[in-house]
Fold this sequence. Notes:
It contains four helices and two strands; from the N terminus they run αααββα. By secondary structure, it is of the alpha+beta class.
Amino acid sequence: MKSGEARWDFFTNHAHVIFYLQAYPDRPLRQVALAIGITERAVQRIVAELEAEGYLKRTKVGRQNQYQIEGDVALCHPRQAHRTLQELLDWDASDAVADSLDDYKALENWKVGEHGSEI
């Protein structure tokens, strides 16, 4: 990709914030923003929304915040509502390198057409 070209992604900024905070729960939001490539203000808004929906819990530790992912919460879109956030995080964290989807153990229960068009 050339510098300055528009880019897109299958995951929203909300997902990227969750993925990052899962790996680095004690990082300042400024670092989250830099790592993801969005503004700190956008990260603050996303964290507030995720917190309001119950996906994220913020705890003050000294002068810093620490973030805890609430993995048992169902995903919010009706087509994925039968899945939890933890299932998505587990899938993202899987380091399986495979030639086919059969080798992705985290995806074995995700079937197209069962409840709509899931992953």
